[in-house]
């Protein structure tokens, strides 16, 4: 049967889209190795649409993407394609595609639905990294480990170690030896700490990020449970498979042990999340996990970039130790070679970029079609100053998350505590917002209500902290109101009204912060319930922070600033990459092992392959070092990133900026015109 909606696909894309459809025999698992810009997202969307048009039940289709935004964009694309085949029915079909989201989000939903079976309280709340670190800290303190003679690892390090053990399914000793050798002497204490941490989470009815995968994977190890969950889905499709970890791969294997109905898509050359225990081996070992082996389809035709950009990107990734994907090709006419731009320092780097961005805008290119990418959020500081000074609006992705701001966390602590009054970290934060309530009195109250069947009712009877009488009563009343109210999202206004007097007292810039609270209320309006709002927001927080002007409305034009990690999956007409120097790329944090170094190389590759027409890699000759005050002038001399050795220079156009004018250059050649030295000597003759 002809399918005109597949006509735009190239032969390899079509092979991937049609795999196993229209045949009666069970098809093997499918692995699509999709090079950068080769239409991975496009292909996956067509495959989902094709399955639906072929009669697959959208409610029995599980689609897992790297972010919630990717899932909703995928939903829209699928609907557009299905519409071509089925007309008006498309909306109904794609609306029924309800099992689309991130691994963690889907995990949370399944765990809640099966909570009884798993011995979980279905009202469990989810701790983000900061909450988890706070709880580890609390437990560490209770065990007396914070008072050890030599310094015990910090709460953040403890959490990283715990998380790596869990996600990589690796023993503590091995994780310590491989990634945290300076903590190796603390193995016994860390084990004790992690055991107590797990118990505390269970008592408080909270799960952390890792638990969502861990509980899910553990439950799937039970054949009865696995069969139950697996029977809900005919098709499981996973995007960005190169960034999944061992736990995720074991979950998939338990969902589809024979491989039939399983599709994963990814690019080993773009694997950049090993710090979250993602393992590039997942994608490399995938075909052999099934019998018969998975079918592998490779997409190597790039539709995004000019050949000149691709050649340079291929050159960089060609030097990688292990390569699995082929070089990309395109039939887009060769544009100009990517610019490798030498500048004096970070200030000149910022000025260079602003000049180029404005030139492009003059030539008709929107700011939004241009992006500045960097390895670490702090690298864009000087550029942000220059943009603000020149009044160029920008939005930054991948820096401080909206939810990390203290006032947002305060308000969310209130909602989380209403949702789950056993969430001690939320309660602890919430109570200390009140003037006169410190850690000791908060602990006392939390101990008092811990055993009660209805902790919120028990709160009203708990002795009020002595120095906080009136404000304390207000908090108890607010909690009771919210507990009783069923009006979502209206209750957020009640929560905000309770918080505002405290906001004014705690923060000097309360006016700006209040605008964030109102924005939070608007975001909340998009969710059907408090529980869904808290879950989704914790799992996948909005990550745009903007300049003082606030987040621009959608129709405004603004320049994109983004960490390379957050630029994943995106594309722009012009791309500028900051600090292409050793120490930044590779980051000096990432030069320990050869695996880390290889991942840094892939990061540069990901950055370069975001560009469609125009790519600039900027190389400042010197840098100001961090860890000094704003007026400090310590700097280091930097050299071009080792990922662009001399033999690749032919793939770039080398530029020095600012350009020296012809007159100035001639003057330089003639020697100094002002002989200040002679004048100084003359003063004493
Ligand atoms: N068959 C095709 N014909 C024309 N254009 C295509 C085709 N497939 C994809 N494209 C275009 O190629 C570009 C890249 O597609 P897409 O974003 O799906 O790539 P990707 O493989 O997900 O990229 P990356 O992994 O680098 O993020 C898009 O602009 C898309 O519209």
Helix/strand class: alpha/beta
CATH class of the largest domain: Alpha Beta
- The shape, in one word, is globular
End-to-end Cα distance: 100 Å
Give the uncertain stretches in residue-range form: 544-554, 627-632
DSSP strand content: 5-15%
| CATH level 3 topology of the largest domain | Rossmann fold
- By CATH, the superfamily of the largest domain comes out as P-loop containing nucleotide triphosphate hydrolases
Q: Based on the structure given, which CATH architecture of the largest domain is correct?
A: 3-Layer(aba) Sandwich
Family: Belongs to the helicase family. UvrD subfamily.
Domain UvrD-like helicase ATP-binding: 13-306
Catalytic activity: ATP + H2O = ADP + phosphate + H(+); Couples ATP hydrolysis with the unwinding of duplex DNA by translocating in the 3'-5' direction
Domain UvrD-like helicase C-terminal: 307-569
Question: What's a concise summary of this model?
Answer:
Residues 13-306 form the UvrD-like helicase ATP-binding domain. With 685 residues, this protein is an alpha/beta fold. The strands form four sheets. Strands 12-11-13-10-14-15-9-18 form an eight-stranded mixed beta sheet.
What does this structure look like?
This protein is of the alpha/beta class and about 675 residues long. The protein folds into four domains: about 5-110 and about 215-300, Rossmann fold; about 125-205; about 325-400 and about 550-665, P-loop containing nucleotide triphosphate hydrolases (Rossmann fold), CATH 3.40.50.300; about 400-540, PCRA, domain 4 (Orthogonal Bundle), CATH 1.10.486. The chain has 28 helices and 18 strands. The protein has an eight-stranded mixed beta sheet. Strands 3-2-6-7-1-8 form a six-stranded parallel beta sheet, with helices on both faces. A two-stranded parallel ribbon has the order 4-5. It binds adenosine-5'-triphosphate (ATP). Adenosine-5'-triphosphate (ATP) binds near residues 9, 10, 36, 37 and 40. It comes from Rhodopseudomonas rhenobacensis. It is an enzyme of class 5 (isomerase). InterPro entries: DExx_box_DNA_helicase_dom_sf, DNA_helicase_UvrD-like_C, DNA_helicase_UvrD/REP, P-loop_NTPase, UvrD-like_ATP-bd.
């Amino acid at each position: 049967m002809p399918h005109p909606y597949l006509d735009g696909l190239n032969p390899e894309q079509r092979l991937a889209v049609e795999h196993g459809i229209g045949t009666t025999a069970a098809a093997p698992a499918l692995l699509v190795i999709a090079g950068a810009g080769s239409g991975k997202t496009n292909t996956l969307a067509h495959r989902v649409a094709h399955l639906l048009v072929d009669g697959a039940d959208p409610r029995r289709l599980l689609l897992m993407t790297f972010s919630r935004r990717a899932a909703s964009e995928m939903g829209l694309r699928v609907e557009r394609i299905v519409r071509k085949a089925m007309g008006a029915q498309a909306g109904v079909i794609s609306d029924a595609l309800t099992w689309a989201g991130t691994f963690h989000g889907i995990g949370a939903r399944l765990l809640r639905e099966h909570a009884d079976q798993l011995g979980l309280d279905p009202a469990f709340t989810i701790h983000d990294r900061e909450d988890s670190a706070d709880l580890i800290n609390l437990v560490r303190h209770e065990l007396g480990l914070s008072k050890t003679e030599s310094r015990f690892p910090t709460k953040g390090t403890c959490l990283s170690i715990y998380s790596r053990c869990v996600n990589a399914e690796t023993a503590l000793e091995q994780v310590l030896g491989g990634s945290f050798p300076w903590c190796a002497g603390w193995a016994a204490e860390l084990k004790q700490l992690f055991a107590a941490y797990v118990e505390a989470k269970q008592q408080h009815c909270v799960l952390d990020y890792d638990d969502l995968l861990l509980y899910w994977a553990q439950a799937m190890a039970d054949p009865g449970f696995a069969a139950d969950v697996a029977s809900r889905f005919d098709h499981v499709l996973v995007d960005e498979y190169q960034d999944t970890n061992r736990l995720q791969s074991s979950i998939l294997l338990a969902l589809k042990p024979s491989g039939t109905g399983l599709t994963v898509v990814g690019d080993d050359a773009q694997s950049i999340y090993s710090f979250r225990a993602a393992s590039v081996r997942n994608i490399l070992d995938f075909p052999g996990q099934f019998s018969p082996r998975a079918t592998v389809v490779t997409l190597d035709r790039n539709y995004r970039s000019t050949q000149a950009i691709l050649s340079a990107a291929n050159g960089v990734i060609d030097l990688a130790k292990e390569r699995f994907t082929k070089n990309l090709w395109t039939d887009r006419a060769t544009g100009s070679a990517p610019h490798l731009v030498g500048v004096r320092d970070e200030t000149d780097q910022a000025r260079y970029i602003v000049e180029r961005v404005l030139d492009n805008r003059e030539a008709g290119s929107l700011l939004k079609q241009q992006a500045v990418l960097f390895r670490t959020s702090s690298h864009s500081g000087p550029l942000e100053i220059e943009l603000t000074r020149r009044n160029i609006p920008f939005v930054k992705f991948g820096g401080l998350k909206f939810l990390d701001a203290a006032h947002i966390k305060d308000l969310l602590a209130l909602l989380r505590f209403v949702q789950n009054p056993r969430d001690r970290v939320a309660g602890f934060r919430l109570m200390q917002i009140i003037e006169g309530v410190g850690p000791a009195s908060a602990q006392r109250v939390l101990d008092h209500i811990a055993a009660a069947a209805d902790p919120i009712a028990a709160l009203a009877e708990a002795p009020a902290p002595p120095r906080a009488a009136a404000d304390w009563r207000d908090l108890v009343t607010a909690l009771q109101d919210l507990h009783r109210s069923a009006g979502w999202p209206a209750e957020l206004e009640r929560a905000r009204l309770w918080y505002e007097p405290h906001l004014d007292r705690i923060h000097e810039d309360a006016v700006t912060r209040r605008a964030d609270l109102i924005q939070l209320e608007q975001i909340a309006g998009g969710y059907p319930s408090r529980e869904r709002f808290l879950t989704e927001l914790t799992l996948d927080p909005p990550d745009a922070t903007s300049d003082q002007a606030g987040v621009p409305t959608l129709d405004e034009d603004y320049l994109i600033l983004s960490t390379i990690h957050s630029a994943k999956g995106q594309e722009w007409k012009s791309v500028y990459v900051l600090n292409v120097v050793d120490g930044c790329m590779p980051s000096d944090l990432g030069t320990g092992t050869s695996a880390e170094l290889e991942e840094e190389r892939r990061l540069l590759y990901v950055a370069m392959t975001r560009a469609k027409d125009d790519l600039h890699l900027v190389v400042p000759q010197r840098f100001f070092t961090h860890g000094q005050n704003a007026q400090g002038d310590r700097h280091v001399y930097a050299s071009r990133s080792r990922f662009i050795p001399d033999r690749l220079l032919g793939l770039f156009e080398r530029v020095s900026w600012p350009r020296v004018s012809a007159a100035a250059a001639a003057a330089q050649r003639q020697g100094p015109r002002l002989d200040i030295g002679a004048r100084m000597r003359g003063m004493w003759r």
